[in-house]
Design goal:
With 582 residues, the protein is an alpha/beta fold. It has 23 helices and 20 strands. The strands form four sheets. Strands 3-2-4-5-7-6 form a six-stranded parallel sheet, with helices on both faces. The chain has a six-stranded parallel sheet with strand order 11-10-9-12-13-14, sandwiched between helices. Helix 22 links the parallel strand 19 and strand 20. The chain is globular, with a radius of gyration of 24 Å.
Length: 582
């Protein structure tokens, strides 16, 4: 075999692994890799404006396509700039491989120019990481990294490659097959546990499916299976923020999102259920509220591929460690084999319909100003005519309003930062989604504060002629911060108001985009239609009611039964203990 440079070996590995897109930013420590990419048209390189943007683009690409996202950045500040996106991917279980340059091996530890201990820095925010010290080991590391990133509970893997390793040579042959010696995630469920789950589900009088991002991560088949088992049992279905779309919002069995800003019916159903079947979720604190008051009278089944998620925060009665798609398939097969029929859940549904009647997502109407909830509702209505719509969000009130008022009927169409809550995620994620889905309508729902976190990536969208749309709910505040200051600090709005916002329409024009400003309710429908119909990238500056709050909500440290449906229910300020949980 002819020898190749480490940089060429890396590129050959990426091609053999089916990588089509790399998001990156060059620097001295990765110039050999960029030179190797120069003659490889099979890999499309997307030049970002900031390394954090690259990681979020890779997340958006991965979440919307099901393929791993790939990032290439230089050493030192290039690697450290990527840490936020790496952590975000770990929290939300996004398959991503981040390739970082490093100073030559003989300089490691000398505080060389643009040196950082990338392996040490990323040890706790990656699924695994590597420092490759020999070109002969590079191929096996790269193939192993992709295997780890994409199997089991997906996550980010970092490969740190010193510059001299990129230049040195070694032979490369594509591996015939790959199997890790010790990393073997359990994908098949214990048949005894499956049988117990089926019998518990058949006997339940008040069952509920509590679903999460694990259903989406398992692949489209898992979402299909979730719909099938819900139809077989007749049980209601709710979801975390990350699981939206795995079960259709148009189904009468859908209760909406649960948790801090979930629906009244979803949270009360969780609290009063006698059986909770948790599928690919992790009992996050934003879902459970006060732990000692969380679903106190229910049996709990937890299906998760990550063993460490079982009993981490909530003790369950039946753990099932498996890929959720595989476990659901086994449950469906056994349900049918044993001849089970859907139980009579009439009384349970009658109670749920009573909670639904509270209409918890209602919001005040106005002829003078645009209500942010109405803006999302109009966006949803207008975009339904598009053949494929992908929604990304930044983080804040707009994120919750989008989750509440935009209906998702398919997985991989809702991209948001859940676990880390990263302002600056949504716009680059939209770019990554647009790269992976060039014929889709991709809209980033943003706030006026969070959009500025990575607004420089407008240049990336312009360079690659990506027709992404940014729909800003502009209330001139860091909206969620302001809401919490109102509710917990007697409306002392410390540094949550911005009186120096850019003119977003002029900013759009500066980058060669189309800019649209919507200032009143009478302009809303036409402005959204113009955004959708415009072929290139668009920013919409939608001026919404400045002091709108996001309801319903469960106050920090409260139980599901303590939901607040409107501001009139807020009394006084929260305790110090509750403030610590915000």
């Amino acid at each position: 075999m002819a020898e190749k440079s480490g940089a060429d070996i890396l590129v050959e590995c990426l091609i053999d692994l089916g990588v089509e897109v790399v998001f990156g930013y060059p620097g001295g420590a990765v110039l050999p890799i960029y030179d190797a990419l120069y003659n490889h048209p099979k890999i499309r390189h997307v030049l970002v404006r900031h390394e954090q943007g690259a990681t979020h683009m890779a997340e958006g690409y991965a979440r919307s396509t099901g393929k791993p996202g790939v990032v290439l950045v230089t050493s030192g500040p290039g690697a450290t700039n990527a840490v936020t996106g790496i952590t975000d991917a770990l929290m939300d279980s996004i398959p991503m491989v981040v390739i970082t340059g490093q100073v030559p091996t003989q300089l490691i530890g000398t505080d060389a120019f643009q040196e950082a201990d990338t392996v040490g820095i990323t040890r706790h925010c990656t699924k695994h990481n590597y420092l490759v010290k020999s070109p002969g080991k590079l191929a096996s590391v790269v193939h192993e990294a992709f295997h780890i990133a994409t199997t089991g509970r997906p996550g980010p893997v970092v490969i740190d490659i010193p510059k001299n390793v990129q230049i040195a040579t070694a032979p490369y042959r594509k591996p015939e097959s790959f199997e890790h010696a010790s990393y073997r995630p359990q994908t098949k469920a214990d048949p005894v546990a499956i049988a117990s789950a089926v019998e518990m589900l058949a006997a339940a009088e008040r069952p509920i499916f509590y679903t999460g991002g694990g259903v989406v991560n398992s692949g489209p088949e898992a979402s299909t299976l979730l719909r099938e088992i819900a139809a077989l049992t007749g049980a209601p279905v709710t979801s975390t923020l990350m699981g939206l779309g795995a079960f259709p919002a148009s189904s009468p069995q859908w209760l909406g999102m649960l948790g801090m800003h979930g629906t009244y019916e979803a949270n009360w159903a969780m609290n009063k259920a006698d059986l909770i079947l948790c599928v690919g979720a992790r009992f996050d604190d934003r879902v459970t509220g006060r732990l000692d008051a969380f679903a106190p009278h229910s049996k709990k089944i937890h299906i998760d591929i990550d063993r460490s998620s079982i009993n981490k925060t909530v003790e369950v009665d039946l753990p099932i460690i498996a890929d959720v798609g595989s476990a659901l398939a086994d449950m469906i097969a056994l349900w049918k084999e044993r001849g089970h029929k859907a139980a009579d859940l009439g009384e349970w549904w009658a109670r749920i319909d009573g909670w639904r009647a509270r209409n918890s997502l209602a919001y005040p109407e106005s002829r003078e100003e645009i209500m942010p909830q109405e803006a999302i509702a109009q966006l949803y209505k207008a975009s339904r005519s598009a053949k494929d719509v992908i929604i990304t969000t930044e983080v804040g009130q707009h994120q919750m309003w989008a989750a509440q008022h935009f209906g998702f009927d398919a997985p991989n169409k809702w991209l948001t930062s859940g676990g880390l809550g990263t302002m600056g995620y949504g716009f680059p994620a939209a770019i990554g989604a647009q790269v992976g889905n060039p014929d889709s309508l991709v809209v980033c729902v943003a706030g006026d504060a969070s959009i500025q976190m990575n607004i420089q990536e407008m240049g990336t969208a312009s360079q690659y002629r990506l027709p992404v749309k940014i729909f800003i709910l502009n209330n001139e505040y860091m909206g969620m911060v302001r809401q919490w200051q109102e509710l917990t600090y007697e409306s002392r709005y410390s540094n949550s108001y911005s009186d120096s916002l850019p003119d977003f329409v002029k900013l759009a024009e500066a980058y060669g985009w189309t800019g649209i400003r919507i200032e009143g309710p009478q302009e809303l429908a036409a402005g959204i239609a113009q955004m959708i119909d415009t072929p290139g990238p668009v920013i919409v500056d939608c001026r919404v009611a400045k002091l709108s709050n996001c309801f319903p909500m469960i106050p920090s440290g409260a139980a599901h039964t303590d939901m607040l449906l409107d501001p009139s229910q807020v009394e006084g300020i929260m305790s110090d203990e509750a403030k610590a949980l915000v």
